[in-house]
Fold this sequence. Notes:
Blueprint: H1 3-6, H2 10-38, H3 43-49, H4 61-84, H5 90-111, H6 118-139, H7 147-165
Helix pairs in contact: 2-4, 2-6, 4-5, 5-6
Amino acid sequence: MNHSKQHPSLATKAFNVLLWTLQVLWGVFFSFTGFGKVLAYEPAVWNHMVHQVVWFSAVPQGLFVMIGACEFFGGIGLILPAMIGVKPKLTPFAAIGLTLVMILAAIFHIVRGEVSFFVPVNLVLGGVAALIAYGRLMAIPIAARSTSTLRMLLSGFVPVWYQMTHTH
């Protein structure tokens, strides 16, 4: 019997805590920034935003909104599948997707000559996303929970939610 699987080492526990912390921070960050970009779907919002940051005007509105959707869903994907244990393999794939978005963003900014600020930010964001992908795909994957576990969680939440929202 492998005792390391039964009793993870302190280093494994610390790395797991680090991964969870990064997943939540990066997930919230990408969800918020992505949602802000998705709001640019509205022409009035786009016209206001296009003058706020120098590179916004170099990207078509539709592409900008699509990048925002990728960031938003990627951010959700860093947290939700691992947290509820349903399809937890989606978490490292979300991290891989965000890593690719950041690599493409870095290339975009290099081409535009915006290397002093945007490229290092893209590399840090993408590098941490790559660490999350490695951690959750190879080092400490999240085990899938049975659907009945999810059903039990929801069975406790849904009646409470229903009672709170449907007063008689």
